[in-house]
Amino acid sequence: MKPDFKDTPPYSPIACVGFVVTLQRGTEWAATGRVTQKIPADFPTAEKISLRGQ
Predict the structure, then answer these.
(1) When comparing pLDDT for 10 and 53, which is higher?
(2) Which of 6, 13, 15, 34, by CA, is between 20 and 30 Å from 44?
(3) Which pLDDT score is estimated for 5?
(4) Over pLDDT 70: what percentage of the chain?
(5) 42-46: long-range contacts (C-beta < 8 A, 24 or more apart)?
(6) What is the chain's mean pLDDT, rounded?
(7) Of 26 and 14, which is predicted with more confidence?
(8) Upper half-sphere CA count for residue 13 (Cβ side, 13 Å)
(9) What three-state secondary structure class fits 13?
């Protein structure tokens, strides 16, 4: 089931926890060849978005 975000106010994509975590983990992997950072509990799912710094 695709989530319906039509009533969600506009937000900056870089406020998305998924973007931030992916960037951090990807940077760590590119620099060291491994990832030690854990996926946070508020990582977005198919049913909900998760924003920080709004």
Answers:
(1) 53
(2) 34
(3) 61
(4) 78
(5) 42/17, 43/17, 43/18, 44/16, 44/17, 44/18, 46/1, 46/2, 46/3
(6) 86
(7) 26
(8) 3
(9) helix
What is the C-alpha to C-alpha distance for residues 17 and 1, in angstroms, rounded to an integer?
21
pTM of the predicted model as reported, rounded to 2 decimal places: 0.72
Spatial separation of the C-alpha atoms in residues 11 and 13, rounded to whole Å = 6
Closest CA to 8 of 34, 47, 39: 47
Residue indicated by tokens 């030690």: 36
Sign of CA dihedral 17, 20, 23, 25: negative
What dihedral angle (degrees, nearest 10) is formed by the CA atoms of 29, 30, 32, 38?
Answer: -20
Distance of CA 27 to the CA centre of its chain: 14
